[in-house]
Write a structure and sequence with these properties.
heterodimer; A: alpha+beta; Nuclear Transport Factor 2, Chain: A; two-stranded antiparallel ribbon; 8 strands; 41% strand; B: mainly beta; Immunoglobulin-like; 3 domains; five-stranded mixed β-sheet; 1 helix; 25 strands; rod-shaped
């Protein structure tokens, strides 16, 4: 994993970078690339299913970012279930205790769908993702970091959408 | 004027040097990775107080530390595998690093999906087994692991298949057995085992055949014992439909299978045609003529 590091401090340059970073933070849509594959593992993945999985996975990133920024567990219900939801909820509760908030802004996703289970109950994907993360302690910005990481996600179908069941960065 | 300029330059240089010195006052050594469930110690150098943050979607940790000492996180604080941003905010500088928390090596939980729970015998690749492997902290173990699948049929036969997990998941497909009955579908990973029950039921009947016997003004109809193409008896309750056609008249009787056979009676009509069917299977016809 490569990480572009920003080293903070008291210099004017750092302050300027921080101000520009905050200004450029919100509202940008990430670039998305999806590697095409008709058959992923034992089952054929129809175009509509692939589009729905990718759409709901990207929506989950937005939800995660908002929930972690607002420290609001209930927002997770929209796009997460199971282990992923439990884990994010715990992170939010820990943030609340510590009076910390984190802002995640995904910048780029490079998604490969790698497994569609035979019975159609789970889809697994790999995402080489780039995102920025900001750490705020008692509402004071402590650091901004640009991250490149490889995430593995498992999504399950629910009544009307796919929800993220596992979301884990991997080496 | 010249002297003033020199003093200004000296002051600026001294300020720059002191800033650099301050920037170097806090440093640390973050390990590249740590396994979930292990403690983490991050040695720091410098003087003064600092705050260490370890931040990722799966974990947020904050520790105040005296520079020169180590920031220590207990084993029960390091749970969630993933990529983390580590930040040291010192009195005059901020340091960042990356940290991978890796899943524990030993599997501790299996999530086993076996489908379907009920199906007909002799179906090709009709049973699927999918297993996700987790450590004791609910982290998906992405290192390849051997998963042994076994389908134990009611007659005692066992079919085994081994699959290697990729990215935390292993799967297989199996044919259903020729013999109907309950089958235990198991998966083993390391010392762990999970079992699901798969009920294999007879398929569609083969060779549906009926016979008729006159009893007064009625014809007594009865099928032969119904079996599927593998010889399994078709379950009682399966509906068998008898139909008598006479000119433009049709009489239909639906009868549930009882003790393997279906029986009913219809009025005798010379020239009538009686047929039998169940599901998608059509049986023989009987033409009832004069004198029969």
């Amino acid at each position: 994993m490569n990480v572009t590091k920003w080293r903070g401090g008291t210099t004017a340059f750092a302050l300027l970078a921080m101000i520009l970073g905050v200004a450029a933070w919100a509202g940008e849509k990430p670039q998305v690339r999806v590697e095409g594959a008709e058959t992923v593992g034992p089952r054929t993945l129809e175009d509509q299913t692939r589009e729905a999985v990718v759409r709901d996975y990207l929506a989950a990133w937005q939800t995660m970012g908002k929930a972690l920024a607002d420290n609001n567990v209930s927002q997770l219900n929209a796009d997460f279930v199971g282990f992923a939801k439990d884990r994010l909820a715990k992170t939010i509760r820990d943030q609340q205790k510590l009076n910390i908030a984190t802002r995640y802004q995904d910048r780029r996703h490079d998604i490969s769908l790698i497994f569609y289970s035979p019975e159609g109950l789970s889809v697994q994907l790999l995402d080489n993702v780039e995102y920025d993360v900001q750490i705020l302690d008692h509402e004071k910005l402590q650091a901004t970091q640009h991250v490149r990481a490889r995430y593995i996600a498992v999504l399950s179908p629910t009544e009307v959408q796919w929800k993220v069941r596992i979301l884990q960065a991997t080496q | 004027m010249k002297q003033g300029l020199i003093i200004l330059l000296c002051v600026s240089l001294a300020g720059l040097l002191s800033t650099n010195a301050a920037a170097q006052s806090a440093s640390w050594q973050v390990p590249a990775s740590v396994a979930a469930g292990n403690s983490l110690s991050i040695p720091t150098t410098g003087s003064g107080k600092a705050v260490v943050y370890i931040v990722g979607p799966g974990e947020v940790l904050r520790r105040e530390v005296q520079l020169g000492e180590s920031a220590v996180f207990a084993a029960d604080e390091i749970h969630s595998a993933g990529y983390y941003t580590a930040v040291l905010v010192g009195p005059s500088s901020t340091e960042t690093a990356e940290l991978d928390i890796t899943p524990a090596a030993v599997p501790s939980q299996l999530s086993f999906l076996a489908k379907p729970s009920r199906l007909a015998v002799d179906q090709r690749n009709a049973i699927s087994g999918v297993v996700y492997v987790f450590d004791s902290f609910d982290n998906l173990i992405v290192q390849p692991l051997q998963a042994g699948f076994a389908l134990s049929e009611s007659g005692g036969a066992v079919r085994n298949q081994v699959a290697t997990s990729r990215n935390g998941v292993a799967w297989i497909r199996l044919d259903s057995a020729p013999k109907a009955g309950k089958a235990d579908f198991q998966v083993h990973v390391g010392n762990l085992m999970a079992t699901r029950v798969v009920q294999q039921v007879p398929g569609e009947p083969c060779n549906l055949r009926m016979s008729g016997r006159r009893m007064g003004d009625q014809v007594q109809l009865q099928t032969d014992p119904l079996r599927d193409c593998s010889g399994n008896p078709v379950p009682d309750g399966t509906i068998v439909t008898f139909k008598e056609t006479y000119g433009n008249d049709e009489t239909t009787v639906d009868v549930p299978l009882k003790r393997g056979v279906a029986q009913t009676s219809v009025p005798v009509r010379d020239g009538g045609v009686i047929s039998v069917a169940t599901g998608v299977v059509i049986g023989n016809e009987i033409r009832w003529g004069h004198g029969q």
